Amino acid sequence: MSTSSDAQLASGPAPERLASGPAFEPHMRWPDPAEKELFRFCVREGAALVTRRSGAVRFPAELPSGAEHVLGSLFGRTCLAVDGTDHLAPPGCEWVDLRSLWGVVDELLWGIAGRAVQIVEWDRTHRHCGRCGTPTVPDLRERMRRCPRCDESAYPRVSPAVIVLITRGESDERALLAWGARRSQAFYSSLAGFVEAGESLEEAVRREIREEVGIEVDDITYFGSQPWPFPHQLMIGYRARYRSGELVLQETEIRDARWFTPAEVEEVVAVRGNFSISGWLIEGWIAEQAARSV
User: Fold this and answer.
1) How wide is the angle at C-alpha 41 spanned by C-alphas 39 and 46, nearest 5°?
2) pLDDT (0 to 100) of residue 64
């Protein structure tokens, strides 16, 4: 069992978003052997090892041994991802899917655990060269596995996806939210889709909206981004304005899509809060409309 004396951080409000906060510094520097107080995140196949004590969900200090990867430093202490793929949960611990931990553990820790899931999965699935089949070796200078035979390089996969909040109207502004076909129960969010090869982000915005709901947009404005480890996405957020067209839904992707006022958003189950970029987009728009009415 590997141990660290201060790896147990309880759930609670995040100090700030992972993407903008100085608390976490990404790097690949291995800790000094004398450094004992490490943060370790044991993960496997999209799940993290946690404990539940006195109502708090924590990342445990005692972990199964496994391949380790440096993620960076949190408050100056080295963070390691531990590959727990071949291990059962130790007594008092359990494997919990990362989606189920969303909003349960601290936002900063959830983001680092998501990073750990992606790094461990990439390392396990790129042990052999995709070109010639030769076993690969890790590079010591950057996050990469290299083939010693043909020199093919394999970096952690990142899949860019755009996510867009579309609005229309002036004094009575409304936002377009959609219920995805993969959800059996009504749940509304902003529209999203993957970027295709050879496509700019703005082109992806226009195409996805046209394909999924049949309308045209303009005034496409960058909003922000968020890593999203399901399984290795980078969500790039935009705001856009309705230009023309009637809603025509792509039934394989969208069950329902409607133009909502802020008050109507409160009447349905929709993405809210500050944990995901979809929530940031929706909450930001609702706050704008509230400020207008003052």
Assistant:
1) 160
2) 83
